[in-house]
Design a protein that fits this description.
Blueprint lengths: L1 H26 L8 H31 L9 H21 L3 E4 L2 E4 L4 H28 L5 H31 L1
Helix pairs in contact: 1-2, 1-5, 2-3, 3-4, 4-5
Bound molecules: protoporphyrin IX containing FE (2 copies).
């Protein structure tokens, strides 16, 4: 189950990069690329990943309590992974309502105000923490050796992409103020 969850998470990560880069290009008014099926497939996979992850976490905590060796329940990295995951779940609701809604078959934009900008930046931050804390476990799941340089490469790329997405939200906010 851990392996399946790892594969789903890796697929979500790739889809997230594609969706985020397209989204930022859209918000910067550079290219109007909207791939709805990608967004909703990613959302569905995240739901599956969240359910499996919560299940695995409950099992780990139970085993630790049973064996009277609850060391990792005190492990900050263990909890950072879980708290950032739950934060993503909470903040995705603000993301899905940040741009617009459909009414009678017509898509209406909603003004992208400061509240929306702040919630979207918090959303990106929680995703950043989740990815940073999970890159090494993911590489271990896939049996990658020489973890450090590989994790460094991935994190460098992800940081650049997250920065690009954040700039996208800021430019979109500025465009709404003009
Ligand atoms: C943008 C969305 C997300 C991405 C890109 C993502 C990515 C990942 C990755 C790459 C891993 C490492 C998998 C491995 O160890 O093989 C992971 C683990 C985990 N994720 Fe996510 N995730 C996302 C959303 C969520 C959400 C919404 C939750 C909510 C509960 C969550 C909870 C967890 C937990 C608890 C783990 C650790 C599982 C374990 O120890 O086996 N993730 N995630
Ligand atoms: C876990 C991460 C994310 C998920 C699950 C997600 C999911 C979605 C979904 C389902 C929609 C369609 C909403 C609708 O039809 O009303 C959407 C739209 C959008 N998202 Fe995301 N998103 C994520 C992260 C991001 C990030 C970080 C950006 C930043 C660039 C972004 C930019 C956009 C934009 C610009 C739209 C509106 C245009 C479009 O539909 O492509 N998304 N997102």
């Amino acid at each position: 189950m851990r392996k399946i969850n790892g594969i789903i998470a890796a697929v979500v990560l790739v889809m997230f990069v594609v969706h985020g880069v397209f989204g930022a290009l859209n918000m910067m008014n550079i290219a109007p690329i909207i791939v709805k099926w990608l967004s909703y497939t990613m959302l569905a996979l995240i739901a599956v990943h969240a359910v499996i992850s919560v299940g695995l976490s409950v099992r780990s905590v139970r085993t630790a309590i049973k064996t009277k060796a609850p060391y990792f329940t005190k492990n900050r990295l263990f909890w950072s992974r879980r708290i950032s995951g739950l934060l993503i779940l909470a903040l995705v609701a603000f993301h899905l309502t940040a741009f617009g809604y459909t009414e009678g078959g017509v898509f209406r934009l909603v003004p992208f105000d400061l509240f929306r900008l702040v919630t979207q930046i918090l959303f990106i931050l929680s995703i950043a923490v989740h990815i940073i804390t999970n890159v090494k476990p993911m590489l271990i799941t896939f049996g990658v050796k020489r973890l450090r340089p590989k994790a460094g490469d991935i994190l460098f790329f992800i940081s650049a992409v997250l920065l690009f997405m954040t700039i996208g939200f800021i430019i979109y906010y500025i465009r709404w103020q003009l």
